[in-house]
Specification:
single chain; mainly alpha; two-stranded antiparallel sheet; two-stranded antiparallel ribbon; 4 strands; 53% helix; elongated
């Protein structure tokens, strides 16, 4: 049998149709997007972590199994605690929760690596809430607050990006099967051998 000098080719690659390519994300104003003024009044009254978790679970309609549920609630509770430590107003806390939610959503919409897009998106979201340019952005956070928010998001979310990606997205595996042109496949060889034996 003569050796083929043609290069190795990759046969069809099965790609999951649910596999989403990272999308280009556009920052928008998130004031009262996910948490209303009334909801913020209720959150401000709550002091214990279990009470905060149950309220946030209801507000964000978190219906996912453990441990995902616990991890996501911890992210939101830490965000509320960060806002309280920095004496944020209701509208600032509401926007901050929405920003964190949308960064997490951007991260977990695809199992593919999109850390740079998520970090850029977080910067754009913070900028969108720190500069007054109606209708595109509002001056909700001061420069000092915006800097502390960016540091918080970087240290509490972006730094753990791979962990969130691993837990909240399905695992992707690539199955490559080489095929050589000019060389008959094993089945064809077996059929040819059977034909030779029978004849």
């Amino acid at each position: 049998m003569a050796e083929s000098t043609e290069p190795l080719s990759v046969s069809s690659v099965d790609v999951d149709s649910n596999l989403m390519v990272p999308q280009v994300l556009k920052a928008k104003i998130m004031l009262w997007t996910d948490v209303s003024y009334k909801d913020m009044e209720e959150l401000e009254k709550l002091q214990s972590i279990p009470d905060l978790e149950s309220a946030l679970c209801r507000l964000f309609e978190i219906n996912i199994p453990e441990p995902k549920r616990e991890i996501l609630l911890e992210l939101y509770v830490q965000t509320v605690q960060f806002c309280r430590q920095h004496n944020f107003k209701k509208e600032q806390t509401s926007a901050m929760l929405s920003i964190v939610k949308h960064i997490h959503k951007a991260n977990t919409e695809t199992p593919l690596n999109n850390i740079e897009q998520c970090f850029e998106y977080s910067q754009e979201l913070i900028l969108c809430h720190s500069i007054r340019r109606p209708p595109f952005s509002i001056n909700l956070f001061s420069l000092k607050e915006a800097t502390s928010i960016l540091e918080y998001i970087h240290s509490n979310y972006i730094r753990h990006y791979k962990l969130y990606k691993h837990i909240f997205t399905p695992e992707v595996s690539l199955d490559l099967r080489p095929s050589y042109s000019g060389i008959p496949k094993e089945e064809e060889e077996e059929e040819a051998a059977m034909d030779n034996i029978c004849c």
